[in-house]
Amino acid sequence: MPGIRMDAILRDRIVGEAKFIRALMYFNLVTLYGNVPLTTTPPTPTDRPATVGPVELWTQIERDLTDARAALPQSYSGADVGRATWGAATALLAKAQMQQGKWSAATALLQEVIGSGVYDLMPNYADNFTDRFENNQESLFEVQFGDRSFLSAGVRGLNISRMVGPCGPSFCDGRPTRWYVEQFLQDSTVGGQVDPRLDLTIYYNKPGGMDVYGTPFATRYSADTSVLFFKKYGEYYLGLPDQDWDAAINFRVIRYADVLLLQAEALNELGRTAEAYPLVDQVRARVTLAPLPAGLSQDAMRDRILRERMFELGLEGQRWADLQRHARITPALQTADAEFQFFTAGKSELLPIPQSEIDLNPNVHQNPGW
Questions:
Q1: Distance between CA 368 and CA 347 in Å, rounded?
Q2: Are both 37 and 120 inside the same structural domain?
């Protein structure tokens, strides 16, 4: 922030926040698109930055997060609650290193977060996805959505509830797959019940009944009771007759459960499988699931951790990166899910660069196969 006179500590913190946000944006870009333009200086109308590859992008992400975690505080108070913190920058740096297979560096950073004593799991899993417990002890970083302004002030942006929940009369954006529900049903609690995270993540025709905003699922969708809808981040807990499109629920970007499972994964990749058990079991215990079976091999533990992340972090934007860092975005996905039959090797591993970006900048190149 050259040329601006201000308190040095505040200046450094604001710069740290900006670097965290830039790193988060590039983390998403590199995992989804692979090759994108890199801009680190104030842009001008004539700029036409060239596409760069993952190596250069990850280097910049690591540099930004290293700077950010050195400048950001562990916590905030008052109106500043929700800003990027040391914990958020440290955890995101660990995630960036894990995407590159830097397991030792990642586990050291994750242990800093765990050992800080700042974070803990919420006793109730569901409390992470309402507007009643935002910025809680489990949250390292979340997108702060505003008040219920959609109907009173017109469409000024997206609130999370507009993108999830049962389809309305003229709008639907995304559906869970039948395969995902079937995977949930393969595990059970110590009392023999279905993993409670299923009922908090997905609307489905549950044996014994499930209400959808006060109406039994089988009644509301009598024309086709096989349909599935996302439930997490919905406003089902408010007693509304239907999904409102003006929810103020924050979107959780990094949770402590994510950190625990990442640490278990990194330790397992380093051959320290025994140390991964208590971390995974801590997450499972919250939802009354039994501990993992003893004696898992490294490969078996890897599979169990990725499955646990799929259930714990469903609809939180983690699955693609999870599969990517273990080279599992492959045609083999089609054998597990009859609804996923459009994979082309050498193409589908990355999203296409929007044609509008290519039209604006001749130095931006399309990803292979698109």
A1: 6
A2: yes
